[in-house]
Amino acid sequence: MAIRQRTRSARLLLVTLVAASLAIITVDYRGGEQGPLDAAGRVVSSAITPLQQAVSNVVQPVSNFFSSLAELPSLSRRNGELQVQVDDLRTVQQLNQALTRRIETLEQLLGLQTITSHTIAARVIGSGVSNFEWDITIDRGSQDGIEVDMPVVTGASDGPRLVGRVIRVTPISSVVQLVIDRDFAVAGRLSTSQEAGLVLGRGEEDLRMGHLRPGIEVGETEPESVFTVGYEVNGQPGLYPAGILIGTVSRAFSEPDAVESFVTIRPAVDFSTLQYVLVIAPDSDPQGGSP
Amino acid sequence: MRRTVVIVAVTVTALLLQTTVFPELTLLGVKPELLYLVTVVFAALQGPAEGAVVGFVGGLAQDFMLNMPKGITALTLTILGYTVGLARQYIASPSPLLPAILVGLGTAGGVAFHQAVAFLLGEEEGPFSYVAKVVLLTAVYGAVLTPIFFPVLRRAATATHAGRVVRF
Question: In whole angstroms, what is the distance from residue A37 CA to residue A44 CA?
């Protein structure tokens, strides 16, 4: 008798919890991005952030130590190669400085507006919980001026590289959707042909850049780079400033009689070793930023 | 009260490990599904009612960290916890491998169900080959991790219901 009663109460519990889950799915699905459950989600995320910070403080040095041990034999060879690269880059830098001065002068002459924005540095404290979403958690949030849709980059000697965009913000942390996520899309431009197309994330596979002109020629001998395109719609700038490196073309699929061409792109950022990022926050008054 | 604290503590620990330690320790690029493991082990030890509750709480917490309609993981893990708890009552095997087998099968079924519901709600989940790979690898990874986590989870489970623990 008692067993039957227990079975019945367990069944009742199952029905209640399944009904609650279905209600939550329905409410959240209909509510979209600004659903009433988002506030509850922010509370859970805020509560877990300090713990994530503490654990990543312990985990990151350990994982760095082991990865550097594995790379020890190749380090001295790599050191020599890097020295050569440094010498080369110094020469390029001197050339660039001269060119930058020329551009500044020309911009002043033409009265061009440059993008006025500042960056917020943040540390990566966690990765996505699922195998079907590619995102990271960073230790800066709305208290530091971060808002949803802000672009996130990482620094490199040859300029910024695109990491992704902010999709959720709590006061003390933010979630950044990586460029490889299947929901990610950004307008890109090929460096040599200057053709523009839409770059889409495809998870573990290389990114896909579509909507390119049929029969387009893509540099086969030297890997071609893809940068973000800056655009304006009704005076409102797009999400991403122009000129952020997205990646390099890994394969081109171009046939003269096809409706469109597309290329696959290897991302410029190694997401598995990412520790620090920069969030680009556009200044509130884009006209007043520069004199 | 003590039961609530244990369930919350286990859920938070699993989520923390899932987002900080295991992204570095992937199996062929795939992370384990620790909350599926926790739900199956609790259900196997404590029966369908506790399995459903642990699944619902853990699933809802995980849902808040996902970029898709909330509630899908809660639904998946509630049903998974109840099913495993019910099935466990009819299995008389004394095999010490039983928890690992249950976690493997439960994770495979759970992840497949989760992706099916996400697909029906119009979520972009990638090609079938990738989904199949994740289903298979999370099941294998969960089964491999079970012997490590099982003693800790059994201790946590016994802290809630001292008299009703099923011994393997």
Answer: 11
> Rounded mean pLDDT of chain A?
81
Interface list for B 92-151 with A (CB within 8 A): 115, 118, 121, 124-126, 130-131, 134, 138
DSSP 3-state of B104: helix
Facing B130 at nearest CB: one of A128, A183, A203: A203
Mark which residues 54-83 of B lie under 8 Å from A by CB. Answer: 55-56, 59-72, 74-75, 78-79, 82
CA distance A32 to A66: 42
- Give tens-digit pLDDT for A94-134: 888 888 888 777 766 665 545 556 888 898 998 888 899 99
The predicted-structure confidence for B43-69, as pLDDT tens digits, reads as follows: 999 889 989 999 999 999 999 888 888
How high is the pLDDT of residue A93? 83
Confidence of residue A282 (pLDDT cuts 50, 70, 90): confident
Tokens 């998974």 sit on residue: B80
User: A28 vs B70: CB contact, 8 Å cut-off?
Assistant: yes
Instruction: Count CB neighbours of A221 within 10 A.
Output: 5
Task: Count Cβ neighbours within 10 Å for each residue of A24-61 and write b for 16 or more, e otherwise.
Answer: bbeebbeeeeebebbebbbebbeebbebbbebbeebbe
Determine, for residues B56 and A17 on separate chains, whether the beta-carbon distance falls below 8 Å.
yes
Contact A132 B118 (CB under 8 A): yes
